[in-house]
Structure formats: structure tokens, C-alpha cells
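A.,

Following up on our hallway conversation. C-alpha cells first:
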């Protein structure tokens, strides 16, 4: 079981960068797959990036611009966002699930734990 708290959101200009952080409670952090999702007003929650057993996966819309990373010593997962676009504006959520869980990493329904979300706004 894990509890998640996101931070690092804010307002940035197009082309700028932002790094989101997700701090997890508990001592089982390294045994969980971690994912980042986002949701814009009026739209469904969308997969952004995931980390599992050292492998990373990205949505086509952010590939080459975003990077997911982990610091197990700090129980933290990061999302480095570069070359931000107005289309990236959304509430970003951190999510977690046990590593051995079946189901795709890009489906929100396959994650057990969620943070409260942090707002990212990119101005044109």
C-alpha cells in the first residue's frame, strides 16, 4: 500500500520546462510500477508516461520531450517536461500499482493508488 502526493505544477510559457515530483509513503516504493497521467477539462484521463522494472514508456504526444525517473532513496518519482506546449495544459496525476500486476501500463483502471493532482498550465 502506498500514498502519493504530487507537486511542482505551475504556469510556464510555451517552450519552457517544468519538473513534477511525486512523493510516496511506505517502504514498498521500489516494488511498484509508477505512472503519470493527465486530464484536461472536459476530457478523459490520458496516459503520459510509466516506469516498470527499469523500463520506461511514453505516450506518442510527449515522446522526446518528457522523461520519467525515480529516486528510490527519496521515495520519489519525477516527470521532467521540456519543450512544453499549450496542449500539455492539464491536471497531472501520479499513480502506482504492484509491479507484478497484469494489465496495460497505459490504462488508468489498472492502477490502484493515485495522488491528488497538480495543475500545469502552458501559455502561448
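Then the amino acids I'd put at each of the 124 positions:
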Amino acid at each position: 500500500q502506498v500514498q502519493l502526493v504530487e507537486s511542482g505544477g505551475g504556469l510556464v510559457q510555451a517552450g519552457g520546462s517544468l519538473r513534477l515530483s511525486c512523493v510516496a509513503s511506505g517502504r514498498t516504493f521500489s516494488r511498484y510500477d509508477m505512472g503519470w497521467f493527465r486530464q484536461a477539462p472536459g476530457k478523459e484521463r490520458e496516459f503520459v508516461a510509466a516506469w516498470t522494472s527499469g523500463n520506461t514508456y511514453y505516450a506518442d504526444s510527449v515522446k522526446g520531450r518528457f522523461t520519467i525517473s525515480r529516486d528510490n532513496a527519496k521515495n520519489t518519482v519525477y516527470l521532467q517536461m521540456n519543450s512544453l506546449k499549450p496542449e500539455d495544459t492539464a491536471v497531472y496525476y501520479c499513480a502506482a500499482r504492484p509491479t507484478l500486476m497484469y494489465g496495460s501500463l497505459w490504462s488508468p483502471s489498472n492502477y490502484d493508488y493515485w495522488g491528488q493532482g497538480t495543475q500545469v498550465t502552458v501559455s502561448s
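The chain has a mean pLDDT of 94. Curious whether your intuition agrees with the design.

B.
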